[in-house]
User: Fold this.
Amino acid sequence: MKIDLTETTSSKINAALVQARRDIGTPAIGMVLTLVIVTDEENAYDALKSANDASHEHPSRIVVVIKRVSRSARSRRDARLDAEVRVGADAGTGETVVLRLHGELVNHAQSVVLPLLLPDAPVVVWWPDGAPSDLAGDPLGALGQRRISDTYACENPQQALGKRAAAYAPGDTDLSWTRITPWRSMLAAALDQQSVKVSSVVVEGEDENPSCELLAMWLADRLQVPVRRTASAGPGLTSVRLETKDGDIVLDRADGSLATLCMPGQPDRAVALKRRDTAELLAEELRRLDPDNTFEAALKFGVAKLAAEGPVKAAPVESPETATGPKADAAPAKPAAKPSKKAPAK
Assistant:
């Protein structure tokens, strides 16, 4: 069921939601949270579709905020709110409100959204694209206990990661981090089966892919070993190599769906490691609403390195690898130290 409201108010939208539930015969709907989506007209359809798919696991009230930029000075002065209310089959397992803000109302979106939040329920704010650098400092972000961005949609993902780290607040997360959950689980399980110590790591994946950077930062932070980041043609993450004295532990995924896990002393095995769609990523993030301390540690670990060397650039396969890690800068210095000691003897 759909109800269109033109030049409306938040109170009229709430009244329309109540009336729509009565009309379809479900005056009470068990929703567990409010999901606020901040996007534009171009990306609204895809974002709403992903949210509706995720609502099958997390029934929620979805509030889509679309800020319509006015072209003329007169239009920018005139504040207007248009809304579309969806209940029933048109709104997944919850209910949906699409808000289109015009004029000066664009700068006061939080005052429109606040009355539409479910009482005594968590609030999650998601920016599919165009997320602010300071998620918690944004007026809409301040309404949420959980704030989700996606640095993959940024023009410069590595620079965006640095800004996210500088402005990080408990509750911030990123879908680029969610994308590597299966990789982290698989690598952790592989290390549990090996008693040897990892000496270095190589992470290979698409250039300008923030998931590759986050995985490299996580490994460097947890293992405290040099981690080298190399570029490949993709798709996404393609390989992680953990180097040990007994042999390398390699997780290789060349086609984006099926990976091969190689470990010393064991036969190679095929593991499912497909690239997940946005709805699956969003559903995973909605399962936990507490701060992600592991993400915080990985994100903040890479800030100094990204600031010192800049974003990792794509390089041909035969070119030298760029290094990331706590010992990466110290490793090349050892060969240079030996000639300096022998110089006086000559």
